[in-house]
C-alpha cells in the first residue's frame, strides 16, 4: 500500500520510505499539537464573550458540557460527575478533535498512533487509582479488590489487579485500533474510487470519531465510579 500523503510530511520533506522513525515522529507530534491547539481555540472562542442566552460556539460548548455532565450523572450521580467533569470533558474534546483530523485529506489522526492512545489511557488509569486512594484511603481502596467472600480473597485480589491493568490495554487499543482501521479503510476507498464514492465512508468515519470519544469518556466515568463510589459495590 502506498504511503498516505500528508501536508506536514510534504512541508518538512520527510518520507516514510526514507526515514520511517523521523516521519512518524513529525506526523505524530504535529497532529497531536494541532488537535490540542484546535481544542484551546474552541474553548477560547466559547468563553470570549459569554452571554446569558448562548449563541454560536458558546451554545455548542454548553450543549457538549451538559451532555457530558448528564452522562456522568447517570453513572455516578450529579455531585461526583461535576467533580470530574473537567477531566472527562477535556479528554473527550481532545479525542474527538484528534479523531476528526484524520478524516480531512492531507492530515492524519494522532489517535491512530498507539503512543497517543496509550498515554491517554495511562492518565486515566493513574488518576482514577489516585482518586480512589485519596478518597477512601489505601487500606479501604485495596480491600475493595478482595471481594465480598473472605475465603476467596487469595483468588480475587490477583484477578482484580490483572483486571485493572487490562484497562490500560482496553482503553488504548480500542481507540487506536478503531481509528487506525478507519484510516486504512479510508485509504483503500480513496485509492479505488477517489471521487464520489468516498462520501459515504466520510460520513461513517465522522460518526465513528464521535462514537470513540463518547466511549472513552463513558469508560473514564465508569472507572472513576468504581474507584470512588465504593458504597454501591
Architecture overview:
77% of the residues lie in helices and 0% in strands. With 233 residues, the protein is an all-alpha fold. The protein has one domain (7-232). Helix 2 packs across helix 3 (56-76), helix 5 (114-136) packs antiparallel against helix 7 and helix 5 runs parallel beside helix 8. The chain is globular and about 65 Å long. The chain starts with 6 loop residues before the first helix and ends in a 5-residue tail after the last helix. The mean pLDDT is 84.
Blueprint of the fold:
Layout: H1 7-12, H2 20-48, H3 56-76, H4 78-101, H5 114-136, H6 138-143, H7 153-192, H8 199-228
Helix pairs in contact: 2-3, 2-4, 3-4, 3-8, 4-8, 5-7, 5-8, 7-8
Q: Which percent bin holds the helix content?
A: over 70%
Tally of domains: 1
Describe the oligomeric state of these chains in a short phrase: single chain
| Fraction in beta strands | under 5%
Task: Note the overall shape.
Answer: globular
The number of strands is 0
- Contiguous low-pLDDT stretches (5 residues minimum) are none
| Structural class by sheet pairing and helices | mainly alpha
Mean pLDDT value: 84
Cα-based radius of gyration, to the nearest Å = 21 Å
Give the termini distance in whole angstroms. Answer: 50 Å
Amino acid at each position: 500500500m502506498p504511503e498516505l500523503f500528508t501536508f506536514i510530511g510534504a512541508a518538512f520533506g520527510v518520507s516514510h520510505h526514507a526515514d520511517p522513525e523521523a516521519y512518524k515522529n513529525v506526523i505524530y507530534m504535529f497532529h497531536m499539537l494541532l488537535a490540542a491547539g484546535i481544542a484551546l481555540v474552541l474553548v477560547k472562542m466559547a468563553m470570549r464573550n459569554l452571554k446569558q442566552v448562548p449563541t454560536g460556539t458558546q451554545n455548542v460548548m454548553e450543549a457538549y458540557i451538559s451532555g457530558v455532565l448528564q452522562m456522568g450523572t447517570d453513572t455516578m450521580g450529579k455531585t461526583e460527575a461535576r467533580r470530574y467533569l473537567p477531566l472527562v470533558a477535556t479528554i473527550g474534546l481532545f479525542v474527538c478533535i484528534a479523531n476528526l483530523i484524520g478524516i480531512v485529506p492531507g492530515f492524519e489522526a494522532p489517535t491512530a498512533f498507539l503512543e497517543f492512545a496509550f498515554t491517554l489511557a495511562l492518565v486515566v488509569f493513574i488518576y482514577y487509582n489516585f482518586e480512589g486512594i485519596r478518597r477512601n484511603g489505601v487500606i479501604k481502596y485495596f480491600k475493595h479488590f478482595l471481594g465480598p467472600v473472605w475465603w476467596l480473597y487469595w483468588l480475587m485480589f490477583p484477578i482484580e489487579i490483572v483486571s485493572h491493568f487490562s484497562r490500560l490495554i482496553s482503553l488504548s487499543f480500542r481507540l487506536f485500533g478503531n481509528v487506525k482501521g478507519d484510516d486504512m479503510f479510508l485509504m483503500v476507498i480513496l485509492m479505488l474510487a477517489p471521487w464520489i464514492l468516498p462520501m459515504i465512508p466520510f460520513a461513517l468515519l465522522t460518526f465513528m470519531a464521535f462514537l470513540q470519544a463518547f466511549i472513552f469518556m463513558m469508560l473514564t466515568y465508569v472507572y472513576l465510579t468504581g474507584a470512588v463510589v465504593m458504597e454501591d459495590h
